[in-house]
Amino acid sequence: MKFEKKTGEVGFTLVEIMIVVAIIGLLSAIAVPNFVKARATSQKNACISNLHQIDSAVQEWALENHQPPNATVVVNGIIPYLGRGTSGSLKSCFCPADPTTKFANSYLVTTVDVAPTCQIAAATHILN
What we know:
Layout: H1 14-64, H2 75-78, H3 103-106, E1 107-108, E2 117-118
Antiparallel strand pairs: 1-2
């Protein structure tokens, strides 16, 4: 039996495959940094939103409890103001960039007149 080469063989050459791989590599080199930047931006925005919520809770706590502006904030005192009614919780209130996912590691709350700050990325996660 004799094997003959067909003239209309279907397939890709090595050069064609290498070009496709190069194009995919180029697209991923462009997409990955943009994905990382978008992730960091969304973490920053979520953290700033948490800071707004914490600041609002502190102000409401101070108003309802007749606290002066220089009063020290007790974190357990603001918990009811962080959720719905008296069932507030600190479990979901942490900086998204914090690997420990704990309120105490993420945020610093001192007195009523000082805005809360993020301890994870204090340079960029700023309450305005």
